[in-house]
Amino acid sequence: MVKFAVFWISSETLLENIRIVLVETSHPGNIGGVARAMKNMMMSNLYLVTPKIFPSADATARASGADELLASAIVCDSLQEAVADCSLVFGASARDRTLSWPEISARECGEKLSEDMGSQKVAIIFGRENSGLKNHELDLCHYLLRIPCNENFSSLNLASAVQIVCYELFVASVQQQPKSVVNKQEEPLATANQLELFYQHLHQALVDIGFMHPDKSKSIMRRLRRIYNRTQLDSKEVDILRGILRMSQGNKGNE
Q: What's the whole-model pTM score?
């Protein structure tokens, strides 16, 4: 019985730093379905970015007992706000993109987080039911998360997609021993907000030194984001890079 208790505490500790973020959900019933899927897998952090209708009786009905997740859901005005304090961000998408992002499967995501997440906050973003996430929203993500399925019929219901991802996270978390749940990094990973300030500073510095035109920089900045997102910068590294940018601007960079 003692081993059983330790097992569940370990699982909950791993999952409590992960949040599910829904962007501009059209149907409130889908929000309820997501809440139910999350509770099934011991996850409780639900963030909603400008939902069309919320709160809603349809959401409560579909939640089927997960009402507390709906009551504690955090509604945000922007995706940047929803992930600002997160150090690792995944964007779920079934669509191919012209400019590729680093990809990871739902199972690989679970394995990665069970090994590496420590006490860092993590966001997994799901887009609109009819169109998914936009490219500028994926710019905030370190990985594009894929759910392997039928190539000729790859569109999943929102709640079903969340259920699959949460299941993989749950399975990975309960297989991880409590003693290995430690943060081995000397410095915490940079949050999404710290990275966004860095990217704004980088953009301005590149304009100041004449590397690129301020109105023709989207493609370059998107590629630079991909480079730095892959490295998973920590807070100290971001400070160092911004110091270099300030020097390149003659100490007139953004603070």
A: 0.79
